[in-house]
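Subject: Protein entry, chain in single-letter code together with its fold tokens

Area: Proteins and the way their chains fold up in space.

Attached in line: The record itself begins immediately under this heading.
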Amino acid sequence: MRSRKSLRGSGARASGSAAEDARGGVAGKGPRKVAGDGRAANGAEPRSSWAAEWGKTLLIAVPLFLLLRTFLFQTFVITSGSMERTLLVGDFLAISKAAYGTRVPGTDLRTPGYSSPARDHIVVFRRHNPELDVVKRVVGVPGDTLQMRAKELYRNGERLDEPYVRHTDPTGNPRDPAMDWQLPHLVPGDRPTDFRPTRDDWGPVVVPEGHLMVLGDNRDDSIDSRYWGFLDQRELKGRVLFIYYSYDREALAPFPLFTEARWGRIFDRVR
């Protein structure tokens, strides 16, 4: 009888241990149970699954980002005043690289664009400084005859109305020897022996095929085609579409990126 009772008691204790295991066990008494779908019994995702999902996301997102940045869109921030008032220091620009097509990295090939550079387009390019992106306004396309007289720009014999232009030096008219590049491009029959182009008086020059004439809107404070010549269209990086953010970089307030935002300029189209 005692032997039988002893067995019953042992059986009760064994049953109690199994019940504990079924509830997930206690510390130090066995491995943690995992559900059949890979989750822990308490519903948490194991670390290996979380890392795998992030890895898949990055494998898709990174190549997609590089593709978009290389061939479709890019951002650009204004750091100088050569395009004031149209663009201000601290403007963040969205640029369409697909507008004129873009160079395929590592080759001389270009993707086709959906438009051609036109007068008054605001464009981004690299020209006189291979490490610096530059933004200017197109004022002349192939075949245009351009000249400037007393700060007034003429295209094909007609004076242009340019309400976007800013002048900050009304009395000066400096000359730079670099402007002598214009001499071989002067209109035939209009090549005086004493030709001395200046910032505000130059031309008339004819824009050759495959090139553009670009100027800054802040005419008295812009290094542009007047100084370094025509822009090869193959050097274009894209067309400026709109301002997606803007702030006053020269403000003395703390954290000006956030506290000095120009809310009225955000999402303005650039013309």
User: Anything to note?
Assistant: Residues 1-41 have pLDDT under 50 and may be disordered. The first strand starts at residue 73 and ends at 77.
